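Bit of a strange request maybe. I'm writing a small parser for structure token strings and I need a real example to test against, not something I typed by hand. Could someone generate the tokens for this chain?
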Amino acid sequence: MKKGFLAVMILAFGFASSAQPSHEIYDALLKKHVTQAGVVDYKGFLKDTVTLNKYLEILSKNPPNEKTWSKEDQMTYWINAYNAFTIKLITNYYPVKSIKDIGSSIQIPFVNTPWDLKFITIGKEKMDLNNIEHGELRKQFDDPRIHMALVCASKSCPILLNEAYDSKRLDAQLNQQAKAFLADPFRNKISANNPQLSMLFKWYSMDFNNKGGSVREFVNRYSTIKIKPNAKISHIDYDWGLNEQ
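Reply from user aminoacidic:
Good idea to test on real output. This should exercise your parser:
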């Protein structure tokens, strides 16, 4: 009896090893407030603040367990967390014309950009969006497709998928995002001889060049139009305008 009572108390106060959280709440919110083209209704998310906060609390109380969670489970958790907390950040300061406006307005010591703002709690750790992207996803997982999944609330970002990432379908979802991102002429203008790529490929070139690969090889893997070996790659200016309706 004592052991049973102790187990209940541990679960009640959140000291047990974290379980894999359900992303159903977030999935429903995305289907409700994001179009298939990735346009976001932040006013709608504001009306559903209580529901969004409930999902974020679930994430906060159930951090990934690297010993018991699969790679796909962990990646799914961090991708959904990044995108959901980005939405939360925008709604905290809405209306804004750009996520970068938040960095110039919050005036907190040692916080220069919105990605440095430690407004996220995962387990007992205070985190910012940079911690999730660079400290978790890029550091722990060798998969450049994450750059097609993380959405920083800007027009030139990959579109926000209007469903939650699912560990059972993660590979297919990441492939889908990579193909859609490269096929979108606003974000990339792929041609055999004069390709113009998103700045993401310049900023994170080391991720695409890892293991002997290259940006060119990545594009040719997921694009229907193939870049020729001698083609010179240029980059498109990034539009930081908010990806809203």
